[in-house]
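Provenance

Sequences were taken from public entries as deposited. Structures were produced by running a predictor on each sequence independently, with no templates supplied. The record for DUF1348 family protein from Streptomyces flavidovirens is shown for reference.
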Amino acid sequence: MTDKRPPFPPFTAGTAREKVQAAEDAWNSRDPERVALAYTEDSEWRNRDTFLRGRAQIVEFLRDKWRRELDYRLRKELWAFTDNRIAVRFEYEWHDEADQWFRSYGNENWEFDENGLMRRRYASINDLTISADERRIAL
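Predicted structure for DUF1348 family protein:
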């Protein structure tokens, strides 16, 4: 049985926004298994300087990420789209075990298969140290 994750390409402005919102909601759940279901079994990722392939590596990566990045909260914004590709800008806030807060900014390029699953995700991310009172994204 093939996994399907609507909306499906080719994307319109409306369906691209739906896809971005679904991704934001899933990532804010901080549930690695839930997030991984949006990707193909052999999905390719570049996240900063880390290269991953497949759902198992995605789940492991996200478990480690959310063990380090506490109280993670994300916002995504549609930047552009074509038939089966979407570009987003994002920012997220989190703190480490020492209670130092960070805001991470970046861009992602996504490519989807015909079933609406993401087969490629390329993320470029930069971190900014912030104080707790500079936070913009509520928990």
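Residues 45 and 52 are 5 Å apart (CA to CA).
The radius of gyration is 15 Å.
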